[in-house]
Amino acid sequence: MRVLANDGVSKSGIDALEKEGFEVLTTTVAQDQLVNYINENEISVLLVRSATKVRTDIIDNCSSLKVIGRGGVGMDNIDVAYAREKGLHVINTPAASSGSVAELVFAHLYGSVRFLHDANRNMPLEGDSKFKNLKKAYAGGIELRGKTLGIIGIGRIGQATAKIAIGVGMKVIAYDPFIEEANIPLEFFDGQSLDFNLKTVSKEEVLKTADFITLHVPAQKEYVIGKTEIALMKEGAGIVNAARGGVIDEVALIEALEKGKLGFAGLDVFENEPSPSIKVLMNNKVSLTPHIGAATGEAQDRIGQELADQIIKILK
């Protein structure tokens, strides 16, 4: 049986599949050529990340296809219900990248409270001529320790983010419409562990109380954070989105940053991805990364292995 990893897959995943007799193809096929390629090569398993879309055209016209796999958490680029209705298995890897995304959230937080994103833009341009000016401009940093982190969406990634926050010494509050409380276990290098029980509160309380807010929610039909929600937030608060583009109203966000209502934003995902708004990209209060939340070697290894394990279980 053939597996097409159209957006790539880790060597660990390939090795595990090949050991069980699967042939793994890593050719990147253009979206409009996928149906022909799958049929010509009798592909049984299609693996994607976020770039490739698996819609009804592929589901209806590829009779050899048995499994669709998403290397990651969200499956908004796959018509999941329709595929399952047609008898296909649809799988993903919800736990594999949680730690990597959580660490990126804190990279944005640390970078923003110490102005690293902006300093790295300006030091190459003016570091040799305006060093003292830049030193003064970036002198008002703040510590994360002792501050309150508000987490919107306390699923696997939200909980992984909470672990880091607690370890840093932050207070954590969370809102989730589906979860009333979460157990947050912290395991330390010497074998010790501590459990923290986190009871969720209202979205309004999170918005009003948190010094920083991070989003960990699936794609939505409406904004999770818009003008109304921003108005409730603390003056100078920061916000990070490493979840999905479109959960924050970027027009309202940029306006709030320009007026000083918000102190900074960290964005790994964007409304118009893969062509983010120029206003977002050029704003010096926005810390930017190009959708790399799960892009660590460790996470990709876990994703590949987890996909392979599920495929083998289904088809062998």
Automatic annotation (TrEMBL):
Presence of the UniProt keyword Cytoplasm in the record: no
Domain called D-isomer specific 2-hydroxyacid dehydrogenase NAD-binding: residue spans: 109-293
UniProtKB keywords: Amino-acid biosynthesis, NAD, Oxidoreductase
PROSITE patterns per the UniProt record, alphabetical: D_2_HYDROXYACID_DH_1
GO biological process, one term: amino acid biosynthetic process
InterPro entries xref list: D-2-hydroxyacid_DH, D-isomer_2_OHA_DH_cat_dom, D-isomer_DH_CS1, D-isomer_DH_NAD-bd, NAD(P)-bd_dom_sf
Entries under Gene3D superfamilies matching the protein: NAD(P)-binding Rossmann-like Domain
Cross-referenced Pfam families: 2-Hacid_dh, 2-Hacid_dh_C
Domain spans labelled D-isomer specific 2-hydroxyacid dehydrogenase catalytic: 6-315
GO function term, MF aspect, one: oxidoreductase activity, acting on the CH-OH group of donors, NAD or NADP as acceptor
Classification via PANTHER family: D-ISOMER SPECIFIC 2-HYDROXYACID DEHYDROGENASE FAMILY PROTEIN (AFU_ORTHOLOGUE AFUA_6G10090)
Family designation: Belongs to the D-isomer specific 2-hydroxyacid dehydrogenase family.
Protein name listed in UniProt: 3-phosphoglycerate dehydrogenase
Organism annotation: Aquimarina algicola
